[in-house]
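Q: Sequence in, structure out?
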Amino acid sequence: MRIKAIEHVQLAMPPGKEAEARTFYEGVLGIPEVPKPPNLAKRGGCWFVRDALKIHLGVENEFRAARKAHSTSGRGSFCPQNADQGRRL
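A: Exactly. Output:
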């Protein structure tokens, strides 16, 4: 089986951190938030979409950040802690 594309990426977030997610994904990365369907919105979290890029953040009540998680834009790794400095690792 050959994968042609990834429809979206689902990431976990702690409860009540939607405002922080919006600040980062919309404010820093420039990915607009889109409304979640009503039946999913009641669970919390948020979705961000720009063209083919789709990131879904879902709430996990017992959230624990992954120790080795990272992302890349294809131009080098991106470190969210240094986003305000535009720093690449």
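Confidence is low (pLDDT under 50) at residues 85-89.
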